[in-house]
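Action item from last meeting closed. Structure (119 res):
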């Protein structure tokens, strides 16, 4: 048999098949509040930017050093999963994304502040 490419990986997608369904990583109250705030911010950013052709948010990954492109709905689903399960499961990356269609979280925040005002 070939070696298991996920051997020792705590994010092995197959672990959910073998482990108990109630096993989860609970978020602290502070972490939960941050995720709820991120979901609220995400809704504002999408409302402001989607009509301007922005498809989602790009994140620089500290683990692999590459950029990850998240469409609005995928990022919302991931954050919701984090709230419900305490972790985000791996997902398929965007297929051949055009980097010009994605902006950073910081860009979104600045754009929203400029359009709506900060205070």
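Sequence:
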């Amino acid at each position: 048999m070939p070696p298991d490419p996920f051997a020792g990986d705590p994010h092995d997608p197959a672990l959910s098949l073998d482990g108990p369904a109630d096993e989860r990583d609970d978020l602290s109250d502070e972490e939960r509040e941050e995720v709820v705030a991120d979901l609220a911010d995400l809704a504002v950013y999408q409302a402001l930017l989607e009509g301007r052709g922005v498809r989602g948010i790009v994140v620089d990954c500290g683990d692999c050093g590459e950029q990850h492109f998240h469409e609005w709905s995928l990022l919302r689903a991931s954050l919701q999963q984090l709230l419900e399960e305490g972790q985000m499961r791996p997902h398929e990356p965007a297929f051949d994304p055009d980097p010009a269609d994605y902006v950073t979280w910081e860009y979104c925040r600045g754009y929203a502040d400029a359009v709506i005002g900060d205070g």
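Note appended to the action item: Residues 30 and 36 are 10 Å apart (CA to CA).
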